[in-house]
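Researcher: Next entry in the queue.
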Amino acid sequence: MARSGALVVLALAVFLVAAAPRATEALTCGQVVSFLQSCIPYARGTGQLTGACCSGVRSLNAAAKTTPDRQTACSCLKSTVAGLKGIQTGTVAGIPGKCGVSVPYPISATVDCSNEVRLSLEKMDEN
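Model: Structure for this entry, 127 residues:
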């Protein structure tokens, strides 16, 4: 009887550990690039805005809910776009809106990701 009670306690402990909420992992630049890779032809002016691109934009928006994640996404996009040839920055800035996603900070090559992203998200929280 004591053995079956110990097994129940062990099973309950395993269940609780398995069901415990996990700390969310931070967004990586690799994930950001993966989400938006299908947008590159459109951003270069050599392709159409595709459903895959908009799906990636929506997925990135859903994945980047915390200020650090949005700052990571912003910094990653700035450095990635700077390293790609032929990217039309005006086109890039318009992609979220065309995909029905509201971004609370300006999308530009000069945005201060550490400051403007944090401040714009704080303003959203106040509303």
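Model: The two ends are 59 Å apart (CA to CA).
Researcher: Noted, moving on.
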